[in-house]
Amino acid sequence: MSQNKEKTYLKWYNKIGYGSGDIAGNVVYALLSAFVMIFLTDTVGMNAGVVGTLIAMSKLFDGVSDIFFGSLIDKTNSKMGKARPWMLYGYFGCAICLVAIFCIPANASPTAQYAWFFIAYTLLNAGFYTANNIAYSALTALITKNNHERVQMGSIRFMFAFGTSMLIQTITVGLVARFGGGAAAWRTVAIIYAIVGVISNTLSVMSVRELSPEELAEGEDVQQDEGLEEKYNLIDAFKLLVQNKYYLMICASYILMQIYTATLNMGIYYMTYVLKNANLLGVFSWAINIPMIIGLLFTPSLVARFGGMYKLNLMGYTLGTLGRLGVVIAGYMGSVPLMLACTALAAIGMSPLQGDMNALIATCSEYTYLTHGKRVDGTMYSCTSLGTKLGGGIGTALAGWLLAFSGYVGGAAQQTASTMNMLHIMYLWMPMIFNLLITLILTRLNVEKANEDLRKHKAM
Predict the structure, then answer these.
(1) Residue 242 burial by Cβ neighbours in a 10 Å radius (0-12, 13-18, 19+)
(2) Mapped to the 3 state alphabet, what secondary structure does the chain carry?
(3) Residue 223 domain-assigned?
(4) What are the φ/ψ torsions at residue 108 (nearest 5 degrees)?
(5) What is the pLDDT of residue 118?
(6) Alpha carbons within 13 A on the beta-carbon side of 246
(7) pLDDT for residue 234
(8) How far is CA 405 from the centre of its chain?
């Protein structure tokens, strides 16, 4: 086993090329999570509560589709490998659906507009984005067996992810204004982002090579019959997931992380109506993403220094929770500089888990292999797509419901006192609570030690 850990599989350009794939994922995710609600409410004129309900209904399809596509990836055998074909071809559907969401016909009836949005949003999330994102995440376990390289890949990947999110949150409002504002401007911006996504996704797919089944099985302690990983259906795959308690913990953490992100992305309302400056969304995005990227740079060396991911992740999220508590206090003090400083502190603390998440899932997948003798990497990585879509969808839907409950009026110059109070709850309190819940989960998520104990037991 020590030789497997020491062997390297990737060149620097493979890691950079792989990580650049998150440009594609985040031109979709960041645009939708930060701006789709305000586009629908303030430009198209839809009701925030109805949009929230449609997004929540769309999520009913996601859980099944994640496990379904994960299982299909595990069963795929092609010249490109298991995951790369799904990543490549799935994104073309993502690009089309992204543009479609911002092409809702202005002269259609309200019912037709809601139906248009629901169909395009569901096809994007439950279909094409699922296939692309699960495949992309699964590559972490399919192109290298070196855990240090997996951590590096995760760090590089999320540097691209947060950099892309930061850029989109910084320039989108200005781009829409430059193109004249209104629905046509939003459509133009969506088309530009979709083209960028197609290019970056294709480059990422072509920059790596999947290991053969023989290379993946080389030196493993668990003996596996040829083709065993193929001999399970969707129900079997689901059972393998729910029998892995660490998968459930990672899945819950990932969902909460994405709800957290979606809640912060709804900060466009907080900036517009509380701080009276929509462009501050970009400033706060810098305060989140620059420290996060800096933290990701150091995550691989910190994981090595701490002798694993468990202590580092737990300590990091404890700091992240305290940082968000500072944001709450600063928000009620009315100090934007202090809010920015505490936001940056929280981001630094949260960065290790973002950077080593893919490696953590790969370790979780090894737990299933050690306990059940089956490789289900694609199915295991369904938690990343499920977490992104379910968490992001719940966060956006929750925002819509809370805005509607508070009496929000789209496009109004002044909002009611109840809406203003709700904006404080949404942007200040809820992110801190989500961070606290993740911290509590991380106290139990020591899958590295569990795998080590299993290997020792099998060696006896």
Answers:
(1) exposed
(2) CHHHHHCCCCCHHHHHHHHCHHHHHHHHHHHHHHHHHHHHHHHHCCCHHHHHHHHHHHHHHHHHHHHHHHHHHHHCCCCCCCCHHHHHHHHHHHHHHHHHHCCCCCCCCHHHHHHHHHHHHHHHHHHHHHHHHHHHHHHHHHCCCCHHHHHHHHHHHHHHHHHHHHHHHHHHHHHHHHCCCHHHHHHHHHHHHHHHHHHHHHHHHHCCCCCCHHHHHCCCCCCCCCCHHHCCCHHHHHHHHHCCHHHHHHHHHHHHHHHHHHHHHCHHHHHHHCCCCCCHHHHHHHHHHHHHHHHHHHHHHHHHHHCCCHHHHHHHHHHHHHHHHHHHHHHHHCCHHHHHHHHHHHHHHHHHHHHHHHHHHHHHHHHHHHHHCCCCHHHHCHHHHHHHHHHHHHHHHHHHHHHHHHCCCCCCCCCCHHHHHHHHHHHHHHHHHHHHHHHHHHCCCCHHHHHHHHHHHHHC
(3) no
(4) -80, 160
(5) 96
(6) 22
(7) 65
(8) 27
Residue 455 lies in a domain: yes
Handedness of CA 387, 389, 394, 396 (dihedral sign): positive
Residue 15 C-beta-side C-alpha neighbours within 13 Å? 18
Instruction: Please identify every stretch of the chain with a pLDDT value under 50, giving residue numbers as ranges.
Output: 1-5, 222-230
3-state helix, strand, coil in the chain (%, to 5): 80, 0, 20
Range of the domain at 61: 18-208+233-459
CB-count burial class (<10 Å; 0-12, 13-18, 19+) for 449: exposed
Cα distance between residue 189 and residue 200, in whole Å: 17
> Helix (H, G, I), strand (E, B), or coil: what is residue 231?
coil
The secondary structure element, H or E, covering residue 380 is helix 377-380
Give the tokens for residue 315. 């300590």
Please report whether residue 227 resides in a domain. Answer: no
Q: Whole-model pTM? A: 0.73
- Residue 235's pLDDT is 76
Sign of the Cα pseudo-torsion (270, 196, 72, 249, in order) = negative
CA angle 24, 320, 418 (to 5 degrees): 85
Residue ranges of alpha helices (H) inside 180-244 are 182-206, 213-217, 234-242
Q: Is residue 9 part of a domain?
A: no
Residue 349: the pLDDT is 96
Pull the structure tokens for residue 155. Answer: 């760090």
CA 341 to chain centre: 24
pLDDT of residue 236: 77
Report the CATH number that the domain containing residue 67 is assigned in CATH: 1.20.1250.20
Q: What is the pLDDT of residue 220?
A: 58
Work out how many domains the chain is built from and give that number: 1
Q: Which two tokens stand for residue 5?
A: 């850990």
